[in-house]
Amino acid sequence: MRTTQGTTDRPLYTRAQLERLIAPRSIAIVGASPRAGSFGLRTLENLALFRGPVWPVNGKYAEIGGRACFASLAALPDKPDLVALVVPREGVEAALKEAAQAGAGGVIVYASGYGEMDREEAGAAQRRLAEIARAARMPMLGPNCMGMVNHALGVGVSFIPEYSKMPRTLGPIAFVSQSGALGYCLAQACERGLGFRYFFSAGNSADVDVADLISAMAEEEEVRSIACLFEGVPSAQRLLEAGEKARRAGKPVIVYKLGTSEDGAAAARSHTGSLAGSAAAFRALFDRAGFVAVDDYEALVEYAKFFAASGRPLARGVAVVSGSGGAGVIAADMAARHGVPMPQPTDKTTAALRAVVPEFGAARNPCDPTGQVLSVPESYGKCCRALLEDPQYGVLLCAMSVAARETGSARAATIAALAREQPKAVSVVWVSEWLQGPGSEGYESDERIGMFRSLDRCYAAIAAWHRWHETPPAAQPRL
Predict the structure, then answer these.
(1) 349 with 325, same domain?
(2) Alpha helices in 157-223 (DSSP H)
(3) Are strands 27-30 and 82-85 parallel, antiparallel or unpaired?
(4) Where is pLDDT greater, at 477 or 349?
(5) Within 13 A of 301's CA, how many CA atoms are on the CB side?
(6) Within 13 Å and on the Cβ side, how many CA atoms surround 331?
(7) pLDDT for 199-256, tens place per residue?
(8) Does position 197 have pLDDT exceeding 90, yes or no?
(9) Average pLDDT, whole number, for the chain?
(10) Predicted local distance difference test score (pLDDT) of residue 130
(11) Sheet of strand 393-400, all strands in order from the earlier edge strand to the far edge
(12) Domain check: are 427 and 302 in the same one?
């Protein structure tokens, strides 16, 4: 699990060392251009909500997009915190040296054609970039990357279109990805309501790599979970150290590993120059590092949100409320599949449920208050509250079957209030194929509610949550 492209021999970067890269107060864009569709103009547009100074740098223009344009980094009125190099590969090395001379605090390199190519000269060129950046103590993201987003500051140093038009929901999740487009696909969950704080595309990781970003996010007070999408790392030991650091900080790292098949590993080498390694070896490394590994890309956002929302388990049992008896049966099946207990309620809780649930319903676990909830909507909340007060249950799971305009938003408000008035975990599984039906955005955006679109993934996440909290962090021997 070692590559010749990337960092293998230095300590992990700390949050303070990456401060000017990931939380810049000023940004310069070298190679800025007014040409529609150009990476330079897209980057400028993506900084529309950034409140600090943005300095386009290109000697061909006096101004771009209403901003004064500078001939060089040396001509800027102040040292830039972050420099984005939006220049062709042939101009990157000279521009990187200029950024170092200008006192930049960090740099992002979009250009490709480096370690992902099976040519020695391309690898040598990437190593030179890393040497320049490290000599200047100027952390570098890339090359061959899509940049980064700091949602709290309105920083969108990326060439992906329309970041500045995305919803501004802040949340406690950080996305760390080697793949730029696929990682940004995760961040696009904000379009359906999810809140996040950071997105990083590490690309070839000549300097700053996935382990460094996990290390920095472990120190980030506002981040409560880290979703990591990666192909390979230059140093297994550094990844282990980053995982242990996050584990000690109580920050779960949810990881999906690309390149587990022979063909996938070959694709990873041609994508970011990463040695994908053996799937079994990486799984063992994840276990030692305290990562929560998922087998499906689709699970990353759901797990990250659930872990961030749920705190520590206060009991092992799960209580289910569903307006569909069939969904309750599926929930029981999935609980059995993943070894998650669903005990029956105590006599006291059963009595409280029977006072609300019709005789033809199910005053048990799973609880089915029936279609009565349409005519007596308060009955749903009463069932939820009764089960949350039962000490056997650490999770309330609401299986939302039929999405309805009549009740959707009001029920979301009821569940949000329940999630805040007591300390137990509350999760919603959106069973309806009306994927963004009434109420769904409220659950997605609520930091106290786990949101799933699969009962199977929900129970898998609950089982992983129990295991993660039951396994204390421990000092690990070096590999």
Answers:
(1) yes
(2) 180-187, 210-218
(3) parallel
(4) 349
(5) 23
(6) 33
(7) 999 999 999 999 999 999 999 999 999 999 988 877 889 999 999 999 999 999 999 9
(8) yes
(9) 91
(10) 96
(11) 317-322, 393-400, 425-430, 449-452
(12) no
Same domain, 228 and 282: yes
Give domain status of residue 333, yes or no: yes
Q: Give the strands of the sheet with 27-30, arranged side by side.
A: 54-57, 27-30, 82-85, 106-109, 140-141
Handedness of CA 287, 290, 292, 297 (dihedral sign): negative
The answer to whether residue 13 scores a pLDDT higher than 60 is: yes
How far is residue 53 from each of residues 27, 60, 67, measured CA to CA in Å?
A: 6, 20, 10
Q: Where among 274, 306, 338 does a domain terminate?
A: 306
In sequence order, the β-bridge partners of residue 150 are 155, 198
Report the pLDDT value the prediction gives residue 359, as an integer from 0 to 100: 87
Distance (Å, whole) CA 268 – CA 270: 5
CA dist 305 and 94 (Å) reads 42
- Distance, in Å, from the CA atom of 199 to the CA atom of 141, rounded to the nearest integer, reads 12
Given this model, what pLDDT does residue 420 score?
95
pTM comes to: 0.91
Task: Dig out the tokens for 5 from the structure.
Answer: 């492209």
Separation of CA 193 from chain center:
14
366 domain residue, yes or no: yes
- Is the domain of 320 the same as that of 288? no
Q: What is the DSSP letter of 355?
A: T
What's the mean pLDDT in 175-200? 93
CB 212 within 8 A of CB 13: yes
Number of domains in the chain: 2
**Which tens digit of pLDDT belongs to each residue from 164-179?**
889 989 999 999 999 8
Q: Which pLDDT score is estimated for 42?
A: 95
> Does residue 387 lie in a domain region?
yes
Q: What are the helix (H) ranges across 311-407?
A: 325-338, 347-354, 372-375, 378-388
User: Is the residue at 12 inside a domain?
Assistant: no
Give the whole-number percent of the chain exceeding pLDDT 90: 76
pLDDT attached to residue 426 = 98
Q: Over the stretch 86-120, which tens digit does the pLDDT of each residue have?
A: 999 999 999 999 999 999 999 999 999 998 888 88
Q: 3-class secondary structure for 282-293?
A: HHHHHHHHCCEE
Report the 10 Å Cβ neighbour count for 447. 17
Say whether both 294 and 359 belong to one domain: no
Query: How far is the CA of 171 from the CAs of 129, 174, 182, 193, in angstroms?
Result: 34, 9, 20, 10
254 and 134 share one domain: yes
Confidence of residue 409 (pLDDT cuts 50, 70, 90): confident
Domain identity same for 352 and 447: yes
Residue type, 88: P
- DSSP reduced 3-state for 269: helix
Q: Are residues 270 and 317 in the same domain?
A: no
Supply the CATH number for residue 463's domain.
Answer: 3.40.50.261
Domain enclosing residue 187, as ranges: 19-306
The domain boundary residue, chosen from 270, 285, 306: 306
